[in-house]
Amino acid sequence: MKATNKVIIGIAGILIAVNLFMLIGDKEPNYPCESLQIKMYCERTTAQYCYPSVGTRIGSKRCLEGWKIIFESFEKQSANADVFHCTNKGCIGG
Fold first, then answer.
1. What is the tens place of the pLDDT at every residue in 30-61?
2. Which of 6, 18, 42, 73 could serve as a FRET partner for 89 with CA atoms 20 to 30 Å apart?
3. Counting Cβ atoms within 10 Å, is residue 31 exposed (0-12), middle (13-18) or buried (19+)?
4. Does residue 1 lie within any of the structural domains?
């Protein structure tokens, strides 16, 4: 194999790894599972499964009681607030 082919394959591998990290690695967990005592980022959920990517089952986890979105309880508690301050980590009523 020529050296130029090795360089091209190496660069392609690096680009793929960086893109995978950007798609999967840096997302905030948005669903907790109390029985497993973990929080995960879920792109989509079913009754008992959390899927971190659309169109694949890779990385999915099963939670017997079901995955509950983190912000549901906040919305119920802050329903009477007139002003919300929101960041990428959530919202605070005030």
1. 888 888 888 888 888 888 998 888 888 888 89
2. 18
3. buried
4. no
- Tell me the C-alpha distance between 49 and 22, whole Å: 23
With 0-12 / 13-18 / 19 or more C-beta atoms within 10 angstroms meaning exposed / middle / buried, residue 51 is buried
Residue range 3-16: average pLDDT?
A: 84
12/81: higher pLDDT = 12
Residue 9 lies in a domain: no
Count of domains in the chain? 1
Q: What is the span of the domain harbouring residue 51?
A: 28-93
Q: Which among 94, 86, 43 is positioned nearest to 67, based on CA atoms?
A: 43
In terms of DSSP H, where are the helices of 1-94?
3-20, 71-77
